[in-house]
Design brief:
With about 120 residues, this protein is of the alpha+beta class. The protein has one domain. Helix content is about 30%, strand content about 25%. It contains 4 helices and 5 strands. A 5-stranded antiparallel beta sheet has the order 3-2-1-5-4. A hairpin with a 4-residue loop joins strand 2 and strand 3. The chain starts with 5 loop residues before the first helix and ends with a strand.
Length: about 120
């Protein structure tokens, strides 16, 4: 019987931002269209801090996180539009917005997410 615990064998948690940027660069180099979403500001309680990143490719790749899941479907939809048009977007989500409730941001805070396509 081993004396090592399962937790001791687990790898350290990944840096989602670094992994997202690495994957974004690889997807782009392989010819995919890619957008990067960045949390630029937070107020109150927010699921992820400013600087959190998510990369999205037009081939279905998603890496990183901007909200822990609660607004990411809306961010992905906007990122696909940004990849198509080339026009960056700044999105705001908060509990006072009807959109925030519809996408599930009920954490009590507000976040702003900037989305830009890689050229």
């Amino acid at each position: 019987m081993s004396t090592h615990s399962a937790a001791a064998a687990d790898p350290p948690p990944a840096d989602l931002s670094t992994d997202a940027l690495d994957l974004a660069a690889r997807w782009h180099a392989a010819g995919a269209r890619v957008a990067v979403a960045t949390v630029t500001e937070t107020w109150g309680s927010s699921p992820r801090p400013a600087g959190s990143l998510m990369a999205i490719s037009d081939e279905g790749g998603i890496a990183g996180s901007v909200s822990g899941g609660c607004v990411e479907a809306s961010v992905i939809e906007a990122a696909l539009d940004v990849m198509h048009t080339g026009t960056p977007r700044l999105l705001s989500f908060g509990v006072s917005d009807d959109d925030a409730w519809s996408v599930g941001l009920a954490c009590g805070g507000t976040i702003r997410v900037f989305i830009e396509a890689l050229a």
